[in-house]
Amino acid sequence: MLRHHSAQRIIETSDVSDILQAVISGKRPKLNDCIHLIRSDNIYALGLVSGFLRDKIFGKVATFVNNIILNYTNVCITYCKFCAFYRAPGHNEAYTLPISEIVKRVLTSKQLFGISQVLIQGGHNPNLNIEYYEDAFREIRKRCPDVGIHGLSASEIDMIAKVERCSTVEVLSRLKDAGLDTLPGAGAEILDDAIKHQISPLKIKSDEWLRIMEEAHKLGIKSSATMMYGTLEDEEQQARHLMKIANLQEKTGGFMAFIPWSFEPNMTQMQSEGLIRYPSGGLRLLKMIAISRIVYHNLINHLQSSWLTNGIGMAQLALTYGADDFGGTLIGEEVVTATGARSTELTSNTIVSAIKQIGYSAHERDNFYRLVKKH
Ligand code: SF4
Question: Could you tell me if 345 and 113 are in contact, meaning their C-beta atoms sit under 8 angstroms apart?
């Protein structure tokens, strides 16, 4: 029960009061409920319930991971219309980091910032075979055994399988043996093929993303799940995305966290074609965070606030709307930087201050969400 009468009253008078009351008494929303929640403008009522669910599990504790993002190549042959990061093979700004440089960046970040995770992501580069990834992971594992390797989207796994002409299970299994710990869950965008056809026609389809995640979970590779909202999808497509991930989680239990991202249109083909001009903004972020907490309560524990595209202030608010994790320090992020979206270099001190400013206790976690240090 929500303790404050005024909070109870706000929920009771909202347009989704039946759904919210059922959620408070332990019922998980179904697809139609989820569509109604997304269509509701009563974000404050949603936030009261999602904040209540969050506090039940985590109290006033917020976590973050001390990490680096390593974008190993920007060469890509998938040409997603929402992406400002990629360069075609042969482009004068195209780059691929040699393995020695990858290892050097991890080592230096470990020494300077004490990172406990490296998030490795890049383009779909047809010139890289599986040995490139295996060698990089083995070397990181050997030189920095306590840095978790959180790497590669489902679509990068698919690209490696195409280069090697082998199955995605084989790629996952070999990369796990080389040191891959977890998958970041990127590349899902919206799990709806009609939308994918419009925004990323050359990328893997929804069922392939789900299949690769299921394969990873069965091999013991845990992952995050993501959603990029704010392109061309409608509320029903967003709700179906949330449900598809919930269904897979019920089967495998392999998702550690969910991360809703808002689309950043700057410098993208979608913006230049006039399809989307502006980002979806702060209110939408709070709504998506609240609904994610409500839908995944007792199913996917961790929910990351998206400071990378929305800034620190919004991430603070998101913590009160249901998020429990601030994400990473993300030193060296280049994908979002390519859109010109805010600073992507945060150090742990800035995150700790941001968490403390709203009266929460800041805990550093590792790649598996285990608490390692209270600040
Ligand atoms: S989002 Fe990934 S797959 Fe799509 S163009 Fe950008 S780098 Fe390539």
Answer: no
Instruction: Flag whether 8 is in a domain.
Output: no
In tens, the pLDDT along 178-214 reads 999 999 988 899 999 999 999 999 999 999 999 999 9
Q: Which of 71, 82, 85 to mutate to test the pocket of ligand 1 (most atoms within 8 A of CB)?
A: 85
Reported in sequence order, the residue ranges of the chain that DSSP labels E, i.e. its strands, are 61-65, 67-71, 117-121, 148-151, 182-183, 222-229, 255-262, 302-303, 325-328, 361-365, 371-374
Residue 3 lies in a domain: no
Output 307 or 51, whichever has higher pLDDT: 51
The yes-or-no verdict on residue 307 having pLDDT over 80 is no
Model confidence at 343, pLDDT cuts 50, 70, 90, reads: very low
Residue 337 has pLDDT above 80, yes or no: no
* 271-279 average pLDDT score: 85
**Residue identifier of the C-alpha nearest atom 1 of ligand 1:** 83
* CA 121–ligand 1 middle distance (angstroms): 10
Site to substitute for ligand 1 among 69, 70, 80, 208, most atoms within 8 A of C-beta: 80
Helix (H) or strand (E) holding 17: helix 17-24
> Which atom of ligand 1 sits closest to the CA of residue 82?
1
Q: Is residue 196 in contact with ligand 1, taking CB distance under 6 Å?
A: no
**How far is 167 from 172, CA to CA, in rounded Å?**
9
Q: What is the CATH number of the domain that holds 201?
A: 3.20.20.70
> Whole-angstrom distance between the N-terminal and C-terminal Cα of the chain?
31
213 within a domain of the structure (yes/no): yes
**How many structural domains is the chain composed of?**
1
- Give the residue numbers spanning the domain of 323: 58-374
Is 37 among the domain residues?
no
pTM: 0.94
